[in-house]
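In keeping with the milestone schedule agreed at the kick-off meeting, the structural modelling team has produced records for the first pair of proteins. Each record is given below as a sequence line and a C-alpha cell line. The laboratory manager (R.T.) confirmed that both were archived under the project's standard naming scheme.
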Amino acid sequence: MISGRELTLSDYLAIARRRVWLIAIPALVVPVVAYLVSLKIPNRYTSQTLVLVEQQKVPGDFVKPVISEDLNQRLLTMQEQILSRSRLQPIIEKYGLYKADGGKVPIEDVLDQMRKAVAITPIKGDTRGTVPGFYISFTANDPRIAQQVCAEITSMFMEENLRARQQSAQGTTDFLVSQLQDAKQKLDEQDRALAAFKSRYVTQLPERDQTNLTMLTTLNSQLEAVTQGITQAGQQKTYMESLLAQQVASWKSKQVEGAAAPDDLERQRTALQNELLKLQARYTLDHPDVIKTKDALTQIDRKIAETSAVIAEGKVSLTKSTAIEPAEIVQMRATIRQLDDQVKSKTKDQERIQQEIRTYQARLQLSPLVEEQYKKLTRDYDTAQKFYDELLGKRKQSEMATELERQQQGEQFRVMDPPNMPEKPTYPNRLLITFGGLAAGLVLGVGSAAVVEFRDQAFRTEQEVVAALNLPVLVTIPLLDKKFLEKTRKGQQKLTVGL
C-alpha cells in the first residue's frame, strides 16, 4: 500500500476483499482453540448463602445496646478472624482441599487460595449506611464441597458474631464495674472529708449563720439585762452602805450620850428619806415640798455627823455590854453582803456572756472562709456523686444489655437462604471465552491484514500513482487476467508453427 493519501471506505473494502482469508482464518481458528483450551480448565462451583441482620428484639428505649460498632467494620474484623490460619486449616484438612501436586504445596499458598475462594459481600442498605445483610460465598472444584464449606464458614460467622457481641458486652460491663469501684472509693473519700470538715466547723457552717446571729442577739440582750442588774445591785449596795454608816453612827452616839436623841435623829432621818422618796415620785425636784424635805434631811445628816465625830475622837469608851449592834444594823450588813454576792454573781454572768458573744462573733467572722471551703468540698462531693450515679446507671444498662446478649435477644445473624448446591460451574464461562477468542481472532486477522497491506508497494489505482509520484496519469493499462494471457500465448505459438 502506497501511503500519502487518505483512505476512503471503498479503499477499506478493497483491502478487506484482497485480505479476506488473512482475516477469516484467525477469526475462525482462535475461537476454536480458545474453546478447546477452556475444556482443559477445571470447573469451579460457587455456593452462596444469604445472612440477614436481625435487630434487637427489645426496643432500644428500654434496653440500650452497648455495641455501637458499624456492621461493616465488624464484618471485616470477623472476616479477618475467620480467615485466619487457625480457623481455615481444620476445614482444609477436613475436606481435603487443594491436594494438587501430591500435597507438596506450602500451607501458606493453600491458605491464600482458600481466602481468595471466600467472598463476603454486604447488601447495600438505606441512605443512613445500615447493612440489612450480607452474602457469603465459597468456590471449589466440587459442588458438594463448595456447599459444605460455605455452610461451615456461615456457621463460623454466626458463632463469632454471638461470641464477639457477648464478649464486647461483658467487657463493657466489667469496665464499668471497675470504674464504678474507683468512683465509689473517691466518693467515700469526699464523704469522709466532708464529714470531718462538718465535725470540725459544725458551729461555723453556712447553715448555722442565722442561728449564730440569733444567739448573738439573744446574748446581747442578756448582757444588757445583766449589766443593768449589776448597776442596780451596785446602787442598792451603795445606798445600803450609806444607811449602815448612818445607823452605826446613830447607834454609837446613842451609846455615848446614853439618851434617845441619836436614835430619834436616825428615826427622823429615815422618815424624812421615805417622805422624800414619795415626794420625788409625785413631784419634780423644784417642788417646794421636795426642797423643804431635802433641807430637813440635810440638817439631820449634819447632826448625825457631829455625833459620829464625837465618837471617833474617843471621848466616850464603850463597854462590852454596850458593843452589841442592834438587829437593824445586823440585818443591813446581811443585806449588803447579799447585794455584794449578787454583784459578784452577775459580774461572772457578764464575763461568761461576753465570752460567748466573742465566740459567736468569731464564728460569724470566720464563716465566709469556712463557707468557701465548704462550697469547694460540697462541689467536689456533688461532682463525685453525680459521676457515681451516672456510672451506676450505665452499669445497670450494660448488665441488662449483656443479659440480653446471653439470651440471644440482641442483634443476631439469621440465615435467610442456606448454602445452595451449585448445578452449573461459575468458572470457566466457556461461551464467554469462545466469544473472547473470536474477538481476539478478529483483532489478530485485521492486524495481520494491516501489516501485509502496509508492506505491499503495488499501485492499484490512479489516486495511488498521483499521490506517490505527484504526476498526472496519461495512459492506463487494464489488468490482464492470467487465463487471457495464457490463451494469447498459445495462439501466438500456433501462429508461429503454421508459418
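The second protein of the pair:
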Amino acid sequence: MTKDEKRLLSSFFEILGNYRLDPIIGRALRFLFRNPYESITIVDKDGIVHFMDKSSEEFFGLKQGEAAGIHIANVEPNTNIPLTLSSGKPQIGKIWDVKGMRRIISVYPLKYDGELIGAVGKQIFHSLDAIDRINHQIQRLNKEINYLKQKEKDAQSSVYRFDTILGTSEAIRETVEIAKKIATLDTDVLIVGESGTGKELFAHSIHGFMNADKAFIKVNCSAIPFDLAESQFFGYEKGAFTGANQYGKPGTFEAAEGGTVFLDEISSLPLSIQAKLLRVLQEREVTRLGSTKIKKLKFRSIAATNIDLRTLVKEGKFRQDLYYRVAKAMVIIPPLRERREDIPVYLNYFLKKINQSFKTNIKGFSDKSLEALTEYDWPGNVRELINVLEQTAIKVFDKDRITVEKLPDEVRFFNRIGTPERIETPLAMNIEQRLTTAEKDMIVAALKKTGGNRLKAARLLEMPRSTLYKKLKDYNIS
C-alpha cells in the first residue's frame, strides 16, 4: 500500500474512532483506491491535490505520490474539477477529452458543516468502447421496440378496402354495394360466406370505409382456449387469477374503443361466453374479471361465419337472442361456383403474385386448362384456388403456360355436374378422397416447413389451431 493510501486510511480510522474496521470493509476501501475500472482524485477547496490514484499519476507521467501538493490544473489540463469548486455543484457523466482519449468523468463537491472543503473527481472507464457497445445495444433494442410497436399497430388496423375486392360479376358487385351501404350505418354486421370467400376482406373494407383511422381488433373465436376466453374478451384486473399480469389487462372490446371488433368464426364460441357477449353487445359495457366497475364503450361489431347460425340455433348450439343481435345487418358473399365469370380474374391476378413469390415467369393458361379451372366448383373458393395455382406452378417450366395436364386431378376430372369423369385410371378416385389426400399432404408439408411447430403450421395454412389439431388426429399425423 502506498504512503498516500496509508495516510487516507489513517484518516478513515481517525474518523471512525474506536470502531473496529471490518476486514471486508478494509478490503473494499483498498479496492476503491486501486479500482482498475475507475480512477479517483481528491483536491481541497483551492484545487490542491491531496490524493491521486497510481494509474492516473502514471497516465499523466508522474511518479507515485508526485501529484500531491500540485494544483489540479497543472496535472489535468481542461479538467472540470475547478468548475465544481467554484459552483459547489456536482457534474455527473460528462465526457472529457484528455491526451487524445475520451473518458467519462464525474466530479462531486465535498462539504463540511455546509462549507465547501474540496472535491472528488472520478474518471469512469479507461475507454469509451464499452459505452459505445452499450449505446449500440440500446439503439438496437429501440429499433426492435419500434418494430414491435408498428407491428402491433398494423395488427390493430384494417389493410383492405373495397377497391381491393376482385371480381366483375354482378353477384360480387351487388355484394360490394350492399356492404358499402351497411358501412355507413352505425350497426353491427354479420358476414356469411363459405370458407375462402373473403369474409375478413369484407370486414376490413366495411371498417375502413368510414373508420380507417380507428382500431380494428380481430379475434379468431375458434382459436381462443376456453378457459382464457373471458379474460381475452373482457380483460382483467391485477391479481384476478394466478399468472395474471400484475398491472391487469384490457380486453378485446376495450382495445377496440371507438373502432371495430371483428369476431371471426363466431359460431365456435361456447354458450357460456355467448351469454356474456350478448350483454356486451346490448349494453355496450364491460366489467373486467376481478372488478365490479362497469366501463361504457363505443365500438362496432362485425361477426363472420361459414356456418348457417340459424341451424345452430335450432340445434341449441347458438343463442337465438345473440343471433338476432349480431345479424342486424347481413352481408352474404357468393361462392365462386355462383360467379364463374370471376374465376379467370382471380386466376390471372394470383398467378402474377405467385410469379413474384416463386421468382417464375409462367405466361398464363392454355384454353383447356382455363376451361377446366372455370368449370371446377371450388369448394374451398379463393383459398383453394390459390393453393391449386401454387401446386401447379411448381410443375410448370419457366416461360411456359399452365396446361390441363399439370392441374391437380380433382380439377382435371371434374365436370359441371360435380362428379369425376369416368376414366380408366388408377387415379380416378372420388373427389372427396382426392381433397382429403390433398389436404393431408398440405398439412404434412406445412409441418415439415415449420419444423413440426403446429402453431406456425396453422398460421401457414390459414387454419384455426383447434381445426389443425382435429385434422392431425383424424388423419393420424404424428
